[in-house]
Amino acid sequence: MTIEEAQQTVDQWIQTTGVRYFNELTNMAMLTEEVGEVARIIARQYGEQSFKASDRDKVLADELADVLFVVICLANQTGVNLTEALQRNLAKKTQRDADRHKQNEKLFGKGDK
Q1: Cβ pair 104, 25 in contact under 8 A
Q2: pTM of the model
Q3: Helices (H) and strands (E) in the chain, counts
Q4: How do residues 9-38 score in pLDDT, each as one tens digit?
């Protein structure tokens, strides 16, 4: 599925199943909530926090998909073409960071350069 197809699919789902988009402020709050759920899993799965019984059934892929869904909703309702936006963003990063990361000693272990 392309990003454009994802935007169309989410829009179709909203129109048929979701009734309508939540307003932008509600979706922003929902995005924050979903990102928090991703953070919770990462902290437990890759960090030092232990899992609670209620966390054990949480799946990172599902929570990341929830984040993506809300981002797509926000893009759709604000008229953002995510394909074009991502292409512009990658071009900006490529130009801005062409040598930045290659010169970052923190990204290389001892003797990696």
Answers
A1: no
A2: 0.87
A3: 4, 0
A4: 999 999 999 999 999 999 999 999 999 999
